[in-house]
Amino acid sequence: MPPTSNARETASAGSAAKARAGGFSRWLGSATSAGFRRAGASAPAILQLVVAVVAAYSVTHYGLGHAAPITAVTVTLSSLGFVRDARPVRVLETAIGVTLGITLSELILMAFGQGIWQLGVSVAVTLFAARIISPAPGFAVIAGVQSALVAMLPAVQGGPFTRTIDGLVGGAIALLVTALIPRDPRRFALADARRVLRVFSDIVSDLVIELRRGPENDVDRVLEDARRTQPLIDQWRASLESALGIARISPFLRRRLPELKRQKVMLAGVDLAIRDLRVVIRRLSVIMRDGQPRPQFADLFDGLVGALSLLEQSLTDPMVRPLARQHLILIAVRLDPDELFPENTMVEISVVLELRPLVMDLLTATGLSVAEARASLPTLPA
């Protein structure tokens, strides 16, 4: 007997429920795996935080005799945190903001006592003062949180400004731990640098394909991909500045300074080159509307893919930098508009002229000065 419509509907609903359950299980498994990977990656930061908290508590409790140095612990945790930007200056700014909120709140409590309106005054004064001192919104929020805590918690033994002293100790411990038990700043900067160079290379590779296609090309899509690169550059810059700041004060990481400084030079050149690339692709998106392939440009960009690969390798092997430089010079000497387009087509010549600063900026990324990079290009007629 064939199944009734109700039976079919029940079976269909059961299948849908199983599918939803399976989808949820896969999502849960993926989220759990991601969570474990995230926790594993945070292990060095967790170790640093634990050591800092124990040290801050020990100094204030056993060294200074403060019964419950909550402020020392909270200042230490707030100053270090889990943020990727672990520069000493950021740690110091956070410690100052927290200590500012504690001190202002203690002053108001000394003058007017504890109560609900004193809480409001403490928070208001702290937020105004923090906004005057720093433009960063997070600075004011951290200061305000600590001010509110001091205004609400019972007075501590030890007299006025005990919590301020605890806060200063917590900030000092955070800075000391940043130098003596640093997180691995080079790892994040290196990963971000590789990500930028690989995305750069992928965009150029896609552009080569579109330039060879001619009809039905999609250079506009490549342009959209190029426009989305700036957040990656900004992330690389933040992680690199953090690495440089830590390496300057850490006796264990100071030997990494030359490598990080070379990476800073590369970042400056690559940032400018990607900006130049957007300009070039924007021009190409216009001229490729005629549906004609541009093999000369495809060959030039194909050479850039190899140079970018060498530039990425040079991040960990400085001996590769001269090879990347030589590769780029071989591209640079070809950027003579009259040689590439002797028929003097102004549209193509304009693209060549815009390609010249792109290659020049990549040459500076290999360590050449601007003057040296410019000298590698063919001289243009006056």
CATH architecture title of the largest domain: Up-down Bundle
Distance between the termini: 92 Å
Determine the CATH topology of the largest domain.
Methane Monooxygenase Hydroxylase, Chain G, domain 1
Q: List the secondary-structure elements in sequence, H or E.
A: HHHHHHHHHHHHHHHH
Query: Regarding CATH, which class of the largest domain?
Result: Mainly Alpha
Secondary structure elements and pairings:
Elements: H1 5-41, H2 43-63, H3 70-80, H4 88-112, H5 116-133, H6 137-152, H7 162-180, H8 185-213, H9 219-227, H10 230-249, H11 257-287, H12 295-313, H13 321-332, H14 337-340, H15 346-365, H16 370-375
Helix pairs in contact: 2-3, 2-7, 3-4, 3-7, 4-5, 4-6, 4-7, 5-6, 8-9, 8-10, 8-11, 8-12, 9-11, 10-11, 11-15, 12-13, 13-15
